[in-house]
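User: Here's a structure from my thesis project, written as C-alpha cells. My advisor, Dr. K., wants to see whether a designed sequence matches the one we expressed. Can you design one independently, without my sequence as a hint?
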C-alpha cells in the first residue's frame, strides 16, 4: 500500500509529539517538517526519519506529493495555513484553537468545506480511555437523560509570564478543551454561559488582562446543566468528570502511575496523579492521529470535525463576554457581536 505523505508545520512540543506518534503508523510517511528555527531540529528530524526540514512552511503547501498537513504552529498563524492547505487540496489536522478571531475561523472553515478536504480539530481528550468510555455509556442510555455535568480541570502549574499575553486567555487556551468535552459528553450544543472568574494564583494574570481561576456554568440546548471549575495551579494535574442522569451517574477520577497504596501507622499513601497532560493523555494523542489517518485511508468522516473546533471557540468567546459583563450570556449574542450569520 502506498503510504500517505504528511507535512508537519511547527516543531514545538506538540509538533514533535505528533511526529513521533505518526512515525509509528505504517500507512504514513512524514516527508517534510517546517519550523522557523529549522536548524535547531535537523538532528531530531534525522533521528525520526524525516528527510526534509525547512524554515518555510510554503514548501509543504507547494509539494504535490504531500496529501495532508498537521498545523502545530502558533495560533495566530493557523488561518493563513488552513486557507493555503485547503486551496492546495491538502487534508488538515489543526491544533486548537483554530484561531483567536471567530469570524476568521468561520471564513476559513467555509473555504475548507468548499474545497472538500478533511479537517480534524486537535481535541485529544476525546480519545482518552476514560473520556471516551463515559461518552459511550451516555450514548447507550446507561444513565438515562443527562441532567448535570461536572468537569474539574486544573493544571499543576501556571504557564510562563511570556506565554500568557499570546495565549488568548484562559478560556481559549485552557478551558477550550473542557468546552469540547462538555459537548462531547452531553451530546448537545451550549445555549448559555455564566462565568465567575478571579486571580488567586498569581497577579501576573491580572497584569496580562487574564484570570487564573474560574467557575463556569453552562446551559445546554437539550436542557442539561453543566459546571466547569478551572485553576492554573493545583500542584498536580486534576482531571475529573461526573455525568449525572435520570437513571444513574458516571464518574472519572484522575489517572495514577500505579494503584498501589501504602498503609502504615502514620497514614495511607499513594502516588500523586500523573503530573501533566503529556503523561495523562499520552495514549489519547496516539489515538487521535491514528483516527485522522484512518479517515484518510478509508475516506470516512474525521471524528472531531471543524464544527467541533468552532463550537468550542464560540463557547469560549461567550465565556469571555460573561466575565467582562458579569452576566449570563446567550451563545447567540456572540454571533451578533462577531457579525456572523447563522
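Assistant: Designed independently from the structure alone:
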Amino acid at each position: 500500500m502506498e503510504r500517505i505523505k504528511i507535512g508537519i508545520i511547527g516543531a514545538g512540543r506538540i509538533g514533535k509529539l505528533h511526529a513521533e506518534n505518526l512515525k509509528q503508523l505504517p500507512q504514513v510517511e512524514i516527508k517534510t517538517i517546517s519550523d522557523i528555527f529549522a536548524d535547531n531540529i535537523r538532528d531530531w528530524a534525522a533521528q525520526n526519519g524525516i528527510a526534509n526540514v525547512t524554515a518555510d512552511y510554503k514548501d509543504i503547501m507547494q509539494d504535490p506529493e504531500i496529501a495532508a498537513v498537521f498545523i502545530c504552529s502558533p495560533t495566530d498563524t493557523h488561518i493563513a495555513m488552513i486557507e493555503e492547505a485547503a486551496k492546495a487540496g491538502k487534508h488538515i489536522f489543526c491544533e486548537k484553537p483554530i484561531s483567536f478571531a471567530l469570524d476568521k475561523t468561520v471564513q476559513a472553515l467555509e473555504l475548507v468545506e468548499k474545497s472538500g478536504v478533511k479537517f480534524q480539530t486537535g481535541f485529544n481528550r476525546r480519545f482518552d480511555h476514560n473520556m471516551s468510555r463515559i461518552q459511550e455509556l451516555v450514548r447507550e442510555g446507561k444513565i438515562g437523560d443527562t441532567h448535570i455535568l461536572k468537569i474539574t480541570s486544573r493544571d499543576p502549574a501556571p504557564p510562563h509570564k511570556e506565554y500568557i499575553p499570546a495565549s488568548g486567555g484562559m478560556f481559549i487556551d485552557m478551558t477550550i478543551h473542557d468546552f469540547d468535552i462538555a459537548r462531547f459528553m452531553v451530546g448537545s450544543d451550549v445555549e448559555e454561559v455564566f462565568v465567575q472568574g478571579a486571580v488567586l494564583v498569581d497577579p501576573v494574570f491580572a497584569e496580562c488582562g487574564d484570570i487564573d481561576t474560574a467557575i463556569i456554568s453552562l446551559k445546554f440546548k437539550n436542557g442539561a446543566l453543566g459546571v466547569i471549575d478551572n485553576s492554573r495551579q493545583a500542584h498536580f494535574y486534576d482531571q475529573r468528570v461526573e455525568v449525572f442522569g435520570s437513571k444513574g451517574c458516571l464518574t472519572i477520577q484522575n489517572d495514577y502511575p500505579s494503584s498501589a497504596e501504602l498503609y502504615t501507622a502514620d497514614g495511607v499513601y499513594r502516588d500523586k496523579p500523573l503530573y501533566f497532560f503529556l503523561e495523562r493523555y499520552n495514549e489519547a494523542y496516539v489515538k487521535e492521529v491514528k483516527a485522522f489517518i484512518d479517515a484518510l485511508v478509508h475516506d470516512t468522516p474525521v471524528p472531531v470535525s471543524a464544527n467541533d473546533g468552532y463550537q468550542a471557540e464560540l463557547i469560549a468567546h461567550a465565556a469571555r463576554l460573561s466575565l467582562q459583563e458579569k452576566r449570563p450570556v446567550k451563545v447567540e449574542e456572540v454571533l451578533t457581536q462577531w457579525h456572523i450569520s447563522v
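When you compare it with your expressed construct, this may help: The chain has a mean pLDDT of 97.
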